[in-house]
Amino acid sequence: MQKYKCEVCDWIYDPAIGDPDGGIAPGTPFEQIPDTWSCPVCGADKGSFVPVA
Fold first, then answer.
1. DSSP 3-state of 49
2. What is the pLDDT of residues 16-44, one digit of tens each?
3. Which class for 20: exposed (0-12), middle (13-18), buried (19 or more C-beta within 10 A)?
4. For a Cys staple, 44 with which of 25, 26, 33, 48, CB 3.0–4.6 Å?
5. CB burial class (10 A; 0-12, 13-18, 19+) of residue 51?
């Protein structure tokens, strides 16, 4: 699964790990995360993430 990086703080969303503290279960593809979710480190919105090459 594709990883995504926050352009604000460089935190990496790894679908294998998810964001359990943010209510995102491991195995959740980035595309399935609600638009209301935000970066757990800096609070940037989902639109601030880009695919990791």
1. strand
2. 999 999 999 999 999 999 999 999 999 99
3. exposed
4. 48
5. exposed
